[in-house]
C-alpha cells in the first residue's frame, strides 16, 4: 500500500502535471502567433511570469503552437487588452533547453512573487507555407505555396498586388514593391501550379486568410509563374555601447543602415525601442550621457519621430518620409535600456 501511495504521489506532483492538465495560447497579439503566454490548468487560464524568460522558452512555445521560428521574448503589458487582475499567475519561471516539443516538458517553478506587469510574451513567425525562391535577395523571388506537403507555383491569372502585400508580410519582409509575371527558364518552377484563386484585400495576416476558390480555368504554364519583390525587413540596433541595450540608434531600411534624428524624440520612443530589442526598461539618460556614443555616418533615415508608447515597432510611430530630414549627425538619437 505504501508503494502504491508513493507512485500516486509521484504521478500527481511530477513533471507531467503541466502536460496532463494544461494547454497553451497567445493572447492580445495581431495574429495567433504572437501575444501574452497563457496556460490552462483545470479549466482556468493563467499567465507565466517573465523571470528568466528567454528565446529558448519562446522557441518551445512557437513549436508547440506550430508558429514557425521564435523571434522575440517579450514581457510586461505590451499585448492588450490588459490582463484582468483577478486572473491567476500559474508559473514563476520556466526553464527550457529550447528543443522540447511543448512547454510541459520544461522545468517550471510555481508562482510566488509576480504581478501581471511581468507577464511573459512571445513573437513567433508563421509556419512556412509560403516562400520566395530564386531571387537575388531573401525578399524577392518566385512565389511558391505549400499545399498537402508539396510546393507549387502561383499563376498570373489568380494573383493581384494585394496578395503580394500579404506574402511580403508573411515571409517577414517589408512592404511589397512589385509583383509581375516571371520567369525565364532558369527561374521557372518545376512542380505543380497552385489550383486556387485568391481575393486578398492586402490586410490579411497570411495568404491562407484570404478568401479563395478552386480556379476552374487553370490552364497555366510555368511561363506565367508569379514573382514578388518586397522591401527588406525593418530592423534596428544600438551601436557604440558596451551591450546591445545601449548605444546610438540605427535603423535598417532598403538594405542600408542609417541613424535617427532627435527632433521630437521622447521617452515613449525610448520605451518602444527598448521593448522591440527585448531589453529592459528605458533608463532615460541625460542628453550629455547620450552624446557619449558619438555621431553616425551615412544616411539619416528618420526625423520627427513621435511614439505613443504602445507601438510594437518603431516603424509604427509617426515620422517623416524615409530619408527626409533637416538634421546633422550631431543630432543622432541614442538610447540606453536596462539589460534583461
From TrEMBL:
Keywords: Disulfide bond, Glycoprotein, Repeat, Signal
Disulfide feature: 96-106, 200-210, 307-317
PROSITE patterns (alphabetical): SRCR_1, SRCR_2
Keyword Disulfide bond attributed: yes
Name of the coding gene: CD5L
GO cellular component: membrane
Organism: Canis lupus familiaris (Dog)
Pfam families found in the cross-reference section: SRCR
SMART domains documented for this protein: SR
Segments forming domain SRCR: 24-125, 130-231, 236-338
Entries under SUPFAM superfamilies matching the protein: SRCR-like
Secretion signal span: 1-18
Protein name as annotated: CD5 molecule like
